[in-house]
Amino acid sequence: MATLKHVQRVWSHFLEKGGFDTHALSGLKVVAASKGNCLSELVVAPHHLNRVGGCHGGLLSHIVDTGGSLAIAADGMYATGISTDLNVSFVSGAQLGDKLSIKSRCLKLGGTLAYTDVEISVGDRIVAMGRHTKYVRVAHKANAEKKLDGQA
């Protein structure tokens, strides 16, 4: 339960900053977390759709980015680093009203880099899979200094 509360606190901090996360992912809910793992949910809303009515690939990419960060938070970090690489494979679509299940894992949290993977699904159907690498050296320093936003 402590890991879940920690990740929810980090996610709240993301939203409080009022940037892109707040606009695109304000409906994201962190529902479970254990060391290095996070489960989130998001219901696809009208502003998540592309011009033909499907879930926008940019949103799915943003979810991989955010999911990787939340997995790093689930490994005990407040500041979660800076993206260095992100890739996404789009497997199937999602529609308005679908509940996306977002399973994020921190595969390795090192002194310089963290490696994560994220699976986005609707029920048993995989929608997208991604990997996210983050530079965490400055985040480790910020965490040691209790600077939540990672600014050194």
Automatic annotation (TrEMBL):
Transmembrane segments: none annotated. It comes from the Eukaryota. Residues 53-125 form the Thioesterase domain. CDD domains: PaaI_thioesterase (cd03443). It holds the Pfam family 4HBT. Keywords: Hydrolase. GO terms for molecular function: fatty acyl-CoA hydrolase activity. Belongs to the thioesterase PaaI family. NCBIfam families: unchar_dom_1. This is Thioesterase domain-containing protein. It comes from Entomortierella chlamydospora.
